[in-house]
Amino acid sequence: MSLLYKVISRLNPQNRAAAPKYYAEAVKRGSISFEEFLDAVCKDTTLNRDEVRMALNKAFRTILDFAKLGLTVHLDSLGHIRVTMRSKGMDTPEEVTATAVLDIVPHFVFSEAFRTELKNVRLEKQG
């Protein structure tokens, strides 16, 4: 199994007169549906689609519940999920209320083991 990449050129936005630089970019091969994902998880196990779907849905709801409490949820060798927020800057601490919050942003951070596994993937240049 290999990860395909293609070569793209980009101009320097700070110096448009400069020669373009060339970069590798991952080729997007498409996507799989949730049903296809469930089938892949079930393969070579005794689990069926409904069991995996139920377990994943419960896990997602549980992660959301913990995230709403401001807790970081560690998912073993997969990584962790946490939330941050963006807010308006105010002149005084008293002005910072819940209405100053612009967005609550979920972050999934892959574990070092997961990132290492990806770094070791075989790369192949697209034809």
Model description:
The chain has helices spanning 34-42, 49-68, 112-119; strands spanning 2-10, 21-26, 73-74, 79-87, 101-110, 122-125. The chain is an alpha+beta fold and 127 residues long. It has a domain at 72-118. Strands 2-1-6 form a three-stranded mixed beta sheet, with no helix packed on it. Strands 3-4-5 form a three-stranded antiparallel beta sheet. Strand 3 (73-74) and strand 4 form a beta hairpin. The longest helix has 20 residues, at 49-68. The chain is flat. The two termini are 16 Å apart.
Distance N to C terminus: 16 Å
Q: What's the alpha carbon Rg, rounded to whole Å?
A: 21 Å
Class computed from helices, strands and strand pairing: alpha+beta
In what order do the strands lie side by side in the largest sheet? 2-1-6
Topology order in helix (H) and strand (E) letters? EEHHEEEHE
Uncertain spans, ≥5 residues at pLDDT below 50? none
Biggest sheet features: 3 strands, mixed
* Tally of helical segments: 3
Helix content: 25-40%
Shape: flat
Described by its quaternary structure, the protein is single chain
What percent of residues are in strands?
25-35%
